[in-house]
Structure to design on (51 residues):
């Protein structure tokens, strides 16, 4: 069995939410939170800082 652990970051400033968007598999206009895969033996806080 293979799985991956991911981390997402919620950043707000002045009532605005930071999101990413781009021409990915779901097309332009699809918004998602910044983040990524947690490395082996990496804790989620360090992964969030890195991302």
């Amino acid at each position: 069995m293979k799985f991956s652990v991911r981390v997402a970051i919620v950043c707000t400033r002045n009532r605005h939410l930071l999101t990413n968007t781009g021409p990915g598999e779901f097309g332009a206009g699809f918004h998602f939170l910044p983040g990524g895969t947690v490395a082996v033996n990496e804790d989620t806080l360090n992964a969030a800082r890195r991302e």
In short: The chain has a mean pLDDT of 86. Residues 21 and 27 are 9 Å apart (CA to CA). The first helix runs from residue 44 to 50. Residues 6-50 form one domain.
